[in-house]
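Today's session is about reading a structure prediction critically. Students often jump straight to the picture, but the first step is always the sequence itself: look for stretches that repeat, for charged clusters, for runs of hydrophobic residues. Only then move on to the predicted structure, which in these notes is written as discrete structure tokens rather than atom positions. Here is the chain we will use throughout the hour.
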Amino acid sequence: MKQSSKGFSLIELLIVVAIILIIAAIAIPNLLRSRIAANQASAVGSLRTLNTSEVTYSSTFNVGFSQTLSYLAPDPTGNAPTSTAAGLIDSVLALGSKSGYSFTYSPGTTDSNGRINTYSFTAVPITSSTGTNYYYTDQSGVIRQNSTTTASSTDSPIAG
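Below is the predicted structure for this chain, in token form.
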């Protein structure tokens, strides 16, 4: 009696699974590094957008820089831009978190005319898997980076 041997043997299937696991072990760390790099690039881009928005806010409304980050957001009812809902950034960034980074806005003190003439933003990765660099910028428009702790005005500027 001859036995039919259609299909794959258990050894053949185990070899295929082992090859797939080896390929996954090589690919997954590269995928995670790519995601971190994309989140960091997004954080720098968001800080550039925030700097531009603050300058636009100051020149448009002639009241100095904004008092809160939400002042740069669009009006949720769709009304025309005002000094408390300027519509200069998207509503996601206005909430203070985007692409694995948390953004904090710190307005400076008001002068005798009630104007805010300085500000700073920090971008901190939410977890180590969303980013490894910390960023800082202020009214100078220079974006600074620190790889170990929250960035400040004394850290090195990023290139480019």
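Discussion point for the tutorial: The chain has one domain: 11-157.
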